[in-house]
Amino acid sequence: MTIANYLVLAAILFTIGAVGVLVRRNAIVVFMCVELMLNSVNLTLVTFARSTGTLDGQLIAFFVMVVAAAEVVVGLAIIMSIYRTRRSASVDDVNLLKY
Amino acid sequence: MSLLAAAADTGVEIGTGEAVVFWVLGPIALAGALGMVLSKNAVHSALWLVNTMLALGVFYVVQEAPFLGAVQIIVYTGAIMILFLFVLMLVGRDTSDSVVETLRGQRIAAIVLGIGFAGLVGAGIARATEDTVLTGLAGVQGGGADGGAADGNVPAIAELLFTRYLLAFEVTSALLITAAVGAMVLAHTEREPGAKQSQKELSRARFLSGDHPQTLPGPGVYARANSIAAPGRLPDGSPSPRSFSTGVEPQVVDELPHTGSTGAEREGLGHAGGTDAALGPTRGGDPA
Prior knowledge:
The complex is a heterodimer of chains A (99) and B (288).
Chain A: H1 3-23, H2 27-52, H3 56-86
Helix pairs in contact in A: 1-2, 2-3
Chain B: H1 2-9, H2 16-38, H3 42-62, H4 66-90, H5 106-128, H6 138-141, H7 153-161, H8 166-187, H9 199-208, H10 263-267, H11 274-278, H12 281-284
């Protein structure tokens, strides 16, 4: 086993997250899929940090986690305020800009 | 060329223990991701995602990043997923995913695209990093087989974080403040002053409506029946509609199975003495 195993696993997880974003219609589940994609990229960063023998990758992963936390807070607040006005958490119902 | 060969010799081998961890937790992480995308219930999706994130946290620890592993478990599975579940319980737990495709063929296209992407990227990465030298982090944070020079993962990260990445660290604080304020602004609902009714106004409204402000009467208790289906009686002997229990078909006590009494005795039960008569044949048959 080499570090390529970790990288391939991260690639597969990223793909599953991307497919989930395209397929699912519930805004909260779409958000979870985005989180999965961020997590898989973090796994790649940690793996490469270990591979190159520097800690920069781990620090970038750390910053990614901070940004993800902030993003989740704001995103879920947006979902809640949309739910208040549209009574729906489906991404298909948020189409007022379309018409 | 000799330099490359020498560099290749300095690489660290991945041990059997780590391989075992990978092959146990890798499928679990994969199953979690698939379960999240495939499960219909959003709460199940969140739990599957927790599964994946815990597995990834263990991967970080195994890959010489114990600090990130702890942060992963505390921040992601602890804080972020709780936030997700909180919002799920507030909104849309029962908003099931619509099966209507807004764009025709989009799902199939997305799945085909995903499989193609995974194949391409996975194969490409596997080929490109096949013979990558694994330097390992023992040189910068210690903990390797030879002990290492430095004094651990967290001090090494702190040293880098507060020197080279200091600006990014400070900007992060601004980002977090902005996110907290933004969430408050978005989730806050403005209420007109005085829009909230006081206790006095509430109780006045409750009594003026002419409805029933106090508790409803309980069911009737008879010698032969104390079921909640048996209604309580008003002073004139008629059953009180308010004592009917919701969800249970009200029963007339006189029509309950009446063991030991004859039809003639049941004849005279229609008037006000109905409850007394319902007690049974011993009293009904004894005029004294």
